């Protein structure tokens, strides 16, 4: 009973405080405190991941660590987003329940946090932050969260490429004159201070300002003090760009990031750095896979200007590089309505291997800007190139452009002595993409002499005719019902049953049963009408 009474008393007191304004239901201060705590733990973990430490930095000394300006900027951004969110429209109502101290807290937060958040975007990239993102790219693989890296824009992409492809980075600017020698000696002396914060501040100041006094840091790296040696080596190593030891660990995470690039600035930067990497010749091993992902990222972004930067790769003297670029761009462009100029130039190449690769990826072209160029390049291959390339060019000409010459050529190939070629020709003729569409008049002109012939070409011509639809097609198929070849009759019957307009088929079949029609045609037309009536 007493415990129940105590709980009710506490509840009553809480309600009374809330009524008097001593306790607010708003969670704004709590969320700000949460942001501070997260920032502290993030900073502490960051120092453990990316920074070398000594025995004196263990234990209780970790608690003395202070925030760096970049951390305050991050916290400022967090607070500004919280204060300026849509929910802040209700802030005046909530502030009515605040005490005077809380009103002062919010006022100070608004005055100090917002300017800090505006200046946060103007600060330079934190090398520690980049190191953590690169490490996450390797450790998380395809599960890497690239949101924070995307937010860094072109600077973030440049930093990642500097790590993975350091030989493609622009030459660094000449180091600015360093601080006076006495100041550098004083900072080096503070590397062995008793307080961890003093040692850390001296280290960071040397990294930022003492690049021009490298000789003094190299001398400090040979100091008798272990702490001074370690921190001097850390300063020196921060000025070096080292390639990743195992590129294979970064590939999955890198693609997770690169496939999200969709702005012209970053795509152009990626294309330029890729071109720089190929200046060394055909890559091998993990570097080959990495550069393939770079080319794929440019193609996946569907930006013409960026893809045009890669055009010299198609003209490269090493056919392996030209083939790699053509195949990768074709495989990763992912959108039929986007055909980069690189594929058109690959079709026009005088090297057979490059044309053969390009022919696989222009099939299904729906890019209206490039359609005429693609057709002209395909016609050139069909008319002027080697027989295997001519055969391969027929499929896109048939499917996408209804080219009558390509149709006639493929029908002729059904009688080829090469069994594989004949089988492929039949498969292309039976392609369902053109089903239900009326044929081109030129195509009907090409099919007419074949339909009056005999043997395998005639049977292939009947099958090709049956792919299309329309009154002209149905009339020709009905005439073929009276053919002496059972295979031709069977193909014509199957094609008539598959026509989309069955009312048209029945009307023309009934007309074929008239007395003026040949007897065999009348008989087979009646038989087909009986079958259709049962469906």
Notes on the protein architecture:
The protein has 535 residues and is an all-alpha fold. Among the domains are: 13-123, no CATH class; 175-240, Leucine-rich Repeat Variant; 421-535, Alpha Horseshoe (Leucine-rich Repeat Variant), CATH 1.25.10.10. Helix content is 67%, strand content 0%. The protein has helices at residues 2-20, 28-50, 69-83, 91-95, 100-120, 127-140, 147-151, 153-164, 181-190, 196-209, 214-220, 226-238, 251-258, 264-278, 285-300, 304-309, 311-314, 319-332, 341-347, 352-361, 371-384, 387-401, 404-413, 419-429, 441-451, 456-467, 471-479, 486-497, 502-512, 519-534. The radius of gyration is 37 Å and the shape is elongated.
Characteristic terms for this protein:
Leucine-rich Repeat Variant; mainly alpha; single chain; 30 helices
In short:
This protein is an all-alpha fold. The protein has 30 helices and no strands. The protein is elongated.
